[in-house]
Amino acid sequence: MVLQWKIKTFDELTVHELYKIMQLRMKVFVVEQQCTFLDADDNDQKAWHLCAWNEDSLVAYTRLFAPGTIYTEAAIGRVVNAAEVRGTGIGKALMERSVLTVYQLFGRTPIRIGAQLYLKKFYESVGFIQDSDIYLEDKIQHIKMILL
What we know:
The protein has 148 residues and is of the alpha+beta class. It has helices at 15-32, 90-106, 120-124, and strands at 4-9, 48-54, 57-65, 74-81, 111-116, 129-130, 135-137, 140-147.
């Protein structure tokens, strides 16, 4: 599988790209994880959208935010991989690419994430450290993590 990575602002996304992004996020967060929440949260317009495409299929995605937008620090959110690519290393490649892209866009700055607790070791493998107590979001245990 040869991935094509694209980074775009909201206004640069085509309607077809946005549809694929929303479709992947809904498949994973709403259907698989059974979370009932408003995914269209008015933050997409403030984000950079990092997409990994395999031909016409969106297989991995994150939203990237400048410092001061969501948190005081820069942020990475809506981290998602398609079911068919899990276990292939694309998730780690996605996070590494997301971190590098944040640095390219906003300079070497701390990066904050809100992580599902069961993924703590995964995010630690990329360099993030836990810096909050466990909290519930959409009935799933989460923690705040930071990469300094």
